[in-house]
Design a protein that fits this description.
Elements: E1 44-45, E2 50-51, H1 61-70, H2 75-96, H3 104-113
Antiparallel strand pairs: 1-2
This protein binds zinc ion (ZN).
Protein name: Flavin reductase
């Protein structure tokens, strides 16, 4: 919708109700903002085996998503990697809690049961 055109009387210069400053003559302060912080990786904090970022048991949901993406074409490599992590986690957690160490089935579910069965 267009505003109706108002005619200026002849011989009078056009005057704006809110004159704009001449931006070309202004000195502007350049503000350099730091880049947004990169997303922190969800890596394990050993020997507790919790996520360094969200403190959930590792691999947390974000770590699982990231691992799925990184190993999308090679799920066998993903399982081998997670088996090594499971081995290290079992050793660390048994050292921390020698009397009541982690349940092997719970560790298996946490580290391996969620992995995809075949390459995506
Ligand atoms: Zn996390």
């Amino acid at each position: 919708m267009e505003r109706p055109h108002r005619r200026q009387p002849k011989g009078r210069p056009c005057r704006l109700a809110h004159p704009r400053p001449n931006l070309a003559r202004q000195r502007r302060k350049v503000v350099i903002r730091p880049a947004a912080p990169a997303a922190r990786p969800h890596l394990p904090l050993r020997p507790l085996w919790i996520c360094r970022t969200c403190a959930a048991p590792w691999p947390c949901a974000t770590a699982r998503l990231t691992l799925r993406q990184e190993y999308a074409t090679d799920t066998v490599a993903l399982r081998i990697y997670l088996c090594t992590q499971l081995h290290d986690a079992a050793a660390d957690l048994h050292k921390l809690h020698p009397q009541n160490g982690p349940d092997p089935k719970a560790l298996f579910d946490r580290f391996l049961a969620w992995t995809p069965r075949a390459s995506l």
